[in-house]
Amino acid sequence: MVWMSLDSSLETRNHQPTLDKEIFGYKTQSCRKALCIAGYILSCGALLLLFYWKPEWDVWANCIRCSLEEADVVLLRTTDEYQIYSRKTVTWISVSALIKSRSDYPTTAEEDSLFSKAITKPSLQVRSIQVQKIRYVWNICAKQFQKVGALEDHHTCSAIHAKFGSGLTCDEQNVRRVICGPNTIDVPVIPIWKLLVKEVLNPFYVFQLFSVCLWFAEEYMEYAIAIIIMSLLSIFLTVYDLRQQSIKLHRLVESHNNMMVTVCRNKEGFQELESHHLVPGDVLVLKEGKTLLPCDAILISGQCVVNESMLTGESIPVTKTHLPQADNCKPWRMHCAEDYKKHVLFCGTEVIQTKADDRGAVKAVVLRTGFNTAKGDLVRSILYPKPMNFKLYRDALRFLMCLIAFAAIGMIYAVCVFVLNGEETGEVVKKALDVITIAVPPALPAALTTGIIYTQRRLKKKGIFCISPQRINMCGQLNLICFDKTGTLTEDGLDLWGLLPSERNCFQDVHSFPADHSLPWGPVFRAMAVCHSLIVWEGKIQGDPLDVKMFEATNWVIDDSSGHQIDGHGSTHAMVVRPGPKASSAPVEGVTILHQFPFSSALQRMSVIAQEIGGEQQVFTKGAPETVAMLCRAETVPSNFESKLRLYTAQGFRVIGLACKSLQSGKQSTDLTREEIESDLTFLGLLIMENRLKRETKPVLEELSAARIRSVMVTGDNIQTAVTVAKNAGMISPMNRVILVEANEIPGSFSAYVTWKPLEEEKTGDYRTLENDSQTERKIRPALESGQYHFATSGKSYQIIAQHFRHLLPKLLLNGTVFARMSPGQKSSLVEEFQKLDYFVGMCGDGANDCGALKVAHAGISLSEQEASVASPFTSRTPSIACVPELIREGRAALVTSFCMFKYMALYSTIQYLGVLLLYWQLNSFGNYQFLFQDLAITTVIGVTMSFTGAYPKLVPYRPPSQLVSPPLLLSVVLNILFSLSMQIFGFVVVQEQPWYSKTDIHSLGHGGLRDVTLEQMDNGYKSYENTTVWLLSTINCIIVALVFSKGKPFRQPVYTNYVFILVLIGQLGICLFLLFADIDDLYSKMDLVCTPTMWRISMVMMLAVTFAVSFIVEEAVIENRALWLLMKKTFWYQSKSHYKRLQRALEQDPAWPPLNETFFSDSVAISVEGNMGGHSNPTFDSNEDAL
Q1: CATH fold label, 468-489+694-760+788-872
Q2: SS3 letters for 577-603?
Q3: Would you kindly state where each structural domain of the chain is located, as residue ranges?
Q4: Which residues are CB-neighbours of 1140 under 8 A, at least 6 positions away?
Q5: Rounded to whole angstroms, how far apart are CA atoms 1183 and 17?
Q6: Which part of the chain is the Cation-transporting P-type ATPase N-terminal domain (predicted)?
Q7: How far is CA 1012 from CA 333, 388, 863, 1002, 1003, in A?
């Protein structure tokens, strides 16, 4: 087998778990192709249609297997459980016109690039394939297809500055342009005819077309026309919806496809060109004023402020700094670690401010173009959504296969009966094919779709918008919800509570806010005034809410006018902060912010270099207190630092550490690295922010807990604060113990260690140590043995455990409740790890740092005021977690509705099928109007109205079944088929035993006595006592089954609350009883019914009543009896096969678990989990692999 791993970027950047693709090479053979064309003609296009549905069969029939090097067609297969095939043609791109005149090509910049390795000599052509809008070219040296349209990852920081800093030459740019293709995210509006053809060629509509042709042949016109109208309506609605989506997506991207940009050409200076001509390696010059970015680019000089709300949903301006000129061998992305995004400008985002430095213009090297960019990935994630791994959809196909198998048996029976009775061949074929259209319900997909549409409408009324309707059913299975903390569980804004200044390594008195007296002038005040990344945008101070609150407390203002003269810096665009009208007197005119090192979630801090006007330069740093304290000189950190920090974090406060130092006058700040700047600092104190729980948080978490749905907190905040919030919110009950899991790598070695210790609460202001304590252990052990414990860990520890202690990770996740200091990539990784344990994971966040996790989860819910966020399948307009139980309720109701619909459709088609097969025994069948009444007046109407039932308001502590093949569901269907079969056979046999029965003489045995009617006058071959009996019994049986299967509690509201459905059933039953007891010759003639004695009609009603009673009792007492099924599970030792359940059972038997006051050491080399940890923070942001 010729196969390689297809770059995970194809999929991971689409927010899917690493989904490799196998690739197989094939060569087209002329003789095979000729045979296939003959097959298309002889089969009247049926073979072509089959190949359209199964592209791999098309390739296997037309081509022979060969190496990838010789292939002109490749077949890709996903390596997940779906094994989806796709066919791609290898195309040739010629670059001869561009290179012929240049014998010295490739130039230095190109020697080690993919562009020179892909060009075949002497033809000067490049082999390529396109997969999901991304172009791959054949690397002759590596013998594999590799992605183009992105700058190679192997470049170091200094190489990017050296090779690309002065721009590409015209020739290099032209070659790259031809190979990479245009820098456009082109989503053409799909023509209506294309959408129509694609929709009509759906296997379901092809089956309907076959059914309609057959019905026309049998003159069953009315239902055929009704199905045509319904199908056309369904097709047009789908096409209209797809067309609208296509137009919306086209409008979303077209603005960036063609704009004028300035690029720097090597040896030729600046040049204006259209953005679709940009290639990776070009140098983009960013001018002042607002600019939309047409590509992803690495900032190599100057500084930018960018609005990334298009990608993250968060409109807080983000500061970008230039890539350092680090002289080492590490690739630039590895050198910058998680902070590499601080140097990358992403496509689709808006540059709102640029600041040049002493190197001149603000420049950026083009990193990715077209669909490789951040915005391109976002668009691709919409165009190629993640396939749904849900048992319901797989079971639905199995269910239809069973019905087809069932129909095949009926066909054989029909052929035998009609052939043995000497019927014409044409008639035999028609009757046999008829069985398929009866056994497979053509209205099933439409009925299932209506259920989802109604649920979507109900969710919309509650302010929850859905862009992925197929995920609604999955919400019914959720059993673990990950919550972000800030803005999700707690209020979005932080209030400044107090400041704890430190002087001469001692904490001073707390300064409370709002205070009567203003904060005195000093280093702490200066830190609050300058250590932030705020900007003035559209006349308002914009930035992180924490920074805004801190700065507002100083009563200073930002003077953002450019061109301030700074000693030793020339005229540079710098920000100055000055005392405002309400500010207390300060001995300075203002402070200039010279340079910023933006906040980094990896480093957990930010720093600025500032200078008092006419004074010296100083560094100010703020960040996580533990991190800041480590950067300070030990003698400046108070001895009771840890106890004070614990005191405030234990009360749920958000605590920020502040520090500063003076810069030596001789040194230029631009020459210093971040490491040099952020060292030997003086500790200034702690800023204490209050973050209140939202009013809805506690009741919602209690409701989820009562429903046995696990809640987990995933936050970027301090671990102690997170644990306190978890306790206050009710995630961790007061009786339960918290075990802190800390992992660290051993310096200078490849191993690591992990410690497990109880996290003690702050009972008073005194600090209690975490150290081993046998007394503590004796108190805690009983709680641990009863399973009442929770693990709390940080992002750093989580990553080390994932790398060094892979076997411990599932055990940690099983009881892990608080995951603090988590980076966006770690959040996504955590969700995926939970999914590996067979949890159905929901993620609820504010859509900013949680984009990746929201996409990866089974159900991502973004709390955003936007109507629909591209970041997640669900968006709640009300920014509270009350939407989570609401979504689960509706999901459960939708899932149960789907099951009810499957059961009903299976029963309706089986009832009709059994009735027809019984009548076939006498070479009879139902009449056209009889079929029409059952199909249209009964089933279609029931199918549309059954889904109206709303969700039950209470969440019960168990979930509906997730699969169609569950024993209760199968038993319910089988038993009801048997009841129906028994009743129909009983009616069929007993009617023949009646004294008035006759096969040939059919009289109208009405209320007025005996009226002789000649058969020829009104008979069309269907009238018989058996037909009338079986048809009336089967029709009313369809209504009985609909009522019995319409489940109410515990997942849906009682059936009587669905007034439309109940009125429909009453109306249908009334009409059926009228048909049963009426004695109207014209009506009976039209419906192919015959009159029977009143007593026989009453007997039929009694048969139906008995069937209804038995069916209802069995459904309620057996099928819906949860206690009975639990008892049977217990009796037969049935245990859940879910990974997490198996692990739970194993750990219950393990006396050594959980470990307490223990340390484990790793004995193996770390497993690289970079692929899992990296870049799910946005649709965009990471992938290192490029090979196909």
Answers
A1: Rossmann fold (3.40.50)
A2: EEECCCCCCCCCCCEEEEEEEEEECCC
A3: 15-102+111-149, 192-255, 260-372, 391-463+887-997+1023-1120, 468-489+694-760+788-872, 505-517+539-562+573-636+651-663+676-692
A4: 810, 814, 837, 838, 839
A5: 12
A6: 147-220
A7: 95, 63, 75, 8, 6
Sign of the CA dihedral 939, 944, 950, 956?
Answer: positive
Contact 8, 1184 (CB under 8 A): no
Residue 1176: closest CA among 851, 789, 736, 832: 851
Residue 915 tokens read as: 């009735």
| Strand extents, DSSP E, 723-764 | 737-745, 752-758
Q: Are 95 and 119 in contact (CB under 8 A)?
A: yes
Within 10 angstroms of residue 866's Cβ, the number of other Cβ atoms is 14
Domain 260-372 in CATH 3.50.50.60? The answer is no
Per-residue pLDDT at 1070: 93
Interatomic CA distance for residues 608 and 589, integer angstroms? 19
Q: Which amino acid is located at 796 in the chain?
A: K
Torsion-angle region of 604 (φ positive above 0: left; ψ -120 to 50: alpha; else: beta): left
Q: What is the pLDDT of residues 1103-1143, one digit of tens each?
A: 999 999 999 999 888 888 778 877 887 777 777 778 888 88
**CATH of 391-463+887-997+1023-1120 given 3.30.530.20, 1.20.1110.10, 2.102.10.10, 3.30.70.100:** 1.20.1110.10
Q: At what angle do helices 967-992 and 883-920 cross, to 10 degrees?
A: 30
User: According to the model, what pLDDT value does residue 99 have?
Assistant: 66
- Phi and psi at residue 596, to the nearest 5°: -120, 140
Best CA proximity match to 1176, nearest among 5, 7, 18: 18
Strand 605-612 relative to strand 617-623: parallel, antiparallel, unpaired? antiparallel
Tokens of 459: 């969710």
pLDDT of residue 319: 80
Q: Which residues of 1093-1128 are buried (b: 16+ CB within 10 A; e: fewer)?
A: eeebbebbeebbeebbeebeebbeeebbeeeebeee
How far is it, in rounded angstroms, from Cα 500 to Cα 104?
67
- Establish whether the linkage from the previous residue to 122 is cis, with ω within 30° of 0: yes
Look at residue 978 in the predicted model and tell me its pLDDT. Answer: 92
Element (H, E) at 36: helix 30-42
Return the C-alpha torsion angle 817, 645, 314, 478, nearest 10: 10
Q: How confident is the model at residue 7 (pLDDT cuts 50, 70, 90)?
A: very low
| Interacting residues of 148 by C-beta distance below 8 A, sequence separation 6+ | 114, 115, 118, 128, 135, 136, 137, 179, 180, 280
What pLDDT is recorded for position 1107?
93
Beta bridge partners of 271: 263
In one-letter notation, the amino acid at residue 89 is T
What value does the mean pLDDT of the chain take? Answer: 79
Torsion angle of alpha carbons 910, 913, 917, 918, nearest 10°? 60
Phi, psi of 139 (to 5 degrees): -85, 110
Above pLDDT 90, what percent of the chain? 9
Alpha-carbon separation of residue 459 from 41, 385, 704, 868, 959 (angstroms): 50, 22, 19, 13, 20
**Does a cis peptide bond (omega within 30 degrees of 0) precede residue 967?**
no
Residue 836 and residue 71: Cα distance in Å, rounded?
A: 37
Alpha-carbon distance of 438 to 228, in angstroms, equals 16
Q: How confident is the model at residue 461 (pLDDT cuts 50, 70, 90)?
A: confident
Query: Which residues are catalytic, by number?
Result: 484
